[in-house]
Amino acid sequence: MFVGLDVHKKYTEVAIVDEDGVVTKQERIENEPGQIEEFSCRLNNAKMVLESSSSWYWLYEILSRRHRVVLSNPAKTKAIASAKLKTDKVDALMLANLLRGGYIAESYVPSAEQGKRRSESVIPSRVDKCSLKVATASWPKKVS
Questions:
Q1: What is the pTM for the complete model shown?
Q2: Which positions ≥6 away from 78 have C-beta within 8 Å?
Q3: By the number of CB atoms within 10 A of the CB, which of 3, 25, 52, 113 ranks highest?
Q4: What is the phi-psi region of residue 86: left when phi exceeds 0, alpha when psi lies from -120 to 50, beta otherwise?
Q5: Which strand (E) or helix (H) includes residue 136?
Q6: Residues 93-103: what's their mean pLDDT?
Q7: For residues 91 and 96, what is the distance between their CA atoms, to the nearest angstrom?
Q8: In this predicted model, what pLDDT tens digit does every residue of 106-143 receive, in sequence order?
Q9: CATH number of the domain at 2-101, out of 3.40.50.2020, 3.40.50.10680, 3.30.870.10, 3.30.420.40?
């Protein structure tokens, strides 16, 4: 079973295909941890794919407890699967079929510890840069 997940801010579009590429189910799930967990429990040993985005990690974390989850590189995947008709259902189905065929360009998935270290080191530096911009913007301008 191959599952394509087109993740959005409030919902995830799901397409499930079997070994022969036959669509067995398409549905939309609200992006609530309980609903994602329930969806995950309904499936047995699935291979899943979702695109790397700003909000993929929590979903990956829940689904990878029970399934093999692949994080797709969206730039490379779009180059392979560019389509004239673009809908959430089509994107989810395309991801499932690319996974089935072995055509997903995978992205690196950092461990939970690595992710924590990255966020701790990146966020303060961004704050410092913002503070510096605000402080320097109010400095008097040099007159020549």
A1: 0.72
A2: none
A3: 3
A4: beta
A5: helix 112-137
A6: 92
A7: 9
A8: 877 766 666 555 555 555 555 555 554 555 455 555 55
A9: 3.30.420.40
